[in-house]
Specification:
Largest sheet: 8 strands, mixed
Distance between the termini: 46 Å
Order of helices and strands: HHHHHEEHHEEEEHEEEHHEHHHHHHH
Helix content: 40-55%
Structural class: alpha+beta
Strand content: 15-25%
Length: about 450
């Protein structure tokens, strides 16, 4: 509005040219008559009016105005790209598993991670876990032990991944004497071991074994080889141990002692402490140098299912986005953030066309300006989106092409310089100056 107030009233170029050419024509034929009829002041006014036709205030300097509008187009293009990304995220959150990380801008063999939020690792079968029942927190690094296509399969809802532990046992077992100095009983020490198992749809994918570095006193029991051979002595806990004394007690007590087999350590506490603190089992299991796979089945047949699911979802979301890009109008702007961003971008893009042709038509005659607005390599418009859809261009390819076009034309607008008056106006001005110069 401020710029509008600074603009002087200008003559219509066609009317001014007609008036000047008519005056010159009359002057050639009746110079004396014209000299009596027209004085120099009126001719000077006509000349100054013509010279002012192409004079614009600084606020509508073509380099400033058109470059500012180009920057508006660029800004709204970036907003449109962000809205497309958000639309992809909305689709992913709606149609894929919770916390999915699938990126539809990447190929199907993309690396993806699973969120460990809310995931715990429990016994595979609590009845066979040697009394262990503690639930352990999972980590993204542990979930990354699964093959990538199985992680994608879960995100597409094709199957379920699960981490659990089993084969809880005491290894490298040894006996130690008790303070009672009775050879019939003993303390048992060993290192706790467990197996981490990864499953896909309850089928085993991999196993890894971890064993504590620290020895634990885990059992008080009968001093026999059969007890020592038990990796999990849970079945005998609570059983009586009858022992015979080496010499009598002179009738004061029976010549025997009875004990109960007992656990001497809390197996759940050992697992829990070693998992997150102490020996950091969760880190060692994720590290190939500390714990290698004992079994591994990548379930290769699932790969084809993942490929088909990716193509199906990718096609669905791209069609959804292209429809919003191609059918933009004011009635749809409240449909979604993408619809609004598309409408605003196309409005700014069309405004660049209209401003160039209406305010600076002489620049529209330049080949590079017309190429940027209407040529084969023009800035993105409705026809650009339609062509991309009809050729089934990937969204990422389409957006990259848009970035390329913006870069291609970025130096055009600041380089625009004021142009001289069109040739017909210049010739008429020269004729009028000659009339004034040679008038009596």
């Amino acid at each position: 509005e401020d710029c509008k107030q600074n603009m002087p009233l200008q003559a219509n170029p066609v009317e001014w040219t007609l008036a000047t050419e008519s005056l010159a024509w009359l002057h050639d034929r009746w110079p004396g008559l014209m000299a009596e009829w027209a004085d120099k002041n009126s001719q000077m006014t006509l000349l100054s009016t013509g010279q002012a036709i192409n004079h614009y205030p600084e606020c509508i300097n073509p380099a400033t105005v058109l470059n500012n509008q180009y920057e508006q187009v660029k800004t709204h293009w970036l907003k449109l790209k962000a809205a497309i990304t958000e639309q992809l995220n909305i689709y992913r959150d709606t149609h894929l598993a919770n916390n999915s990380q699938i990126d539809f801008f990447q190929p199907v063999n993309q690396f993806t991670s699973l969120s460990a939020e809310g995931i715990t690792i429990a016994p595979c079968d609590v009845a066979l876990s040697c009394g262990a029942f503690v639930e352990l927190p999972a980590t993204t690094a542990l979930l990354d032990l699964f093959p990538n296509h199985l992680k994608m399969a879960q995100q597409f809802g094709l199957g379920t991944l699960k981490l659990c532990y089993e084969e809880v046992s005491w290894q490298n077992r040894e006996t130690e004497p008790t303070h009672l100095n009775n050879n019939s009983i003993a303390n048992y020490t060993g290192q706790l071991s467990l197996q981490l198992t990864g499953q896909y749809n309850d089928e085993k994918v991999f196993t890894k074994v971890i064993q504590s570095d620290t020895r634990h006193l885990y059992l008080f029991g009968e001093n026999t080889e059969s007890v020592l051979d038990m990796a999990c002595p849970l079945p005998i806990v609570g059983q009586q141990i009858n022992t015979q004394l080496e010499r009598g007690t002179f009738g004061l007590f029976p010549n025997r002692l009875t004990f109960l087999t007992a656990q001497r350590t809390n197996i759940n506490a050992v697992i829990s402490n070693n998992w997150t603190a102490g020996e950091q089992w969760q880190i060692k299991l994720a590290d190939e140098n500390h714990s290698q796979f004992l079994e591994f089945d990548e379930k290769a047949t699932v790969k084809q299912q993942v490929n088909e699911a990716f193509l199906r979802h990718n096609n669905a979301v791209q069609q959804q986005i292209y429809r919003k890009l191609m059918y933009s109008n004011a009635a749809r702007i409240n449909d979604s953030a993408l619809s609004l961003a598309t409408f605003e971008y196309l409005t700014e893009r069309q405004l660049l066309n209209k401003m160039t042709q209406a305010i600076f038509p002489q620049y529209y005659l330049q080949a590079d300006v017309r190429a940027a607005l209407k040529g084969q390599q023009r800035l993105m418009d409705e026809a650009f989106f339609k062509a991309a859809f009809e050729s089934q261009s990937n969204l990422l390819e389409m957006l990259n092409k848009g970035d390329e076009l913006l870069y291609r034309h970025k130096d055009l607008w600041p380089s625009l310089t004021p142009l001289p008056a069109p040739g017909n106006l210049t010739d008429s001005q020269q004729q009028l100056q000659q009339i004034i110069q040679f008038s009596p």
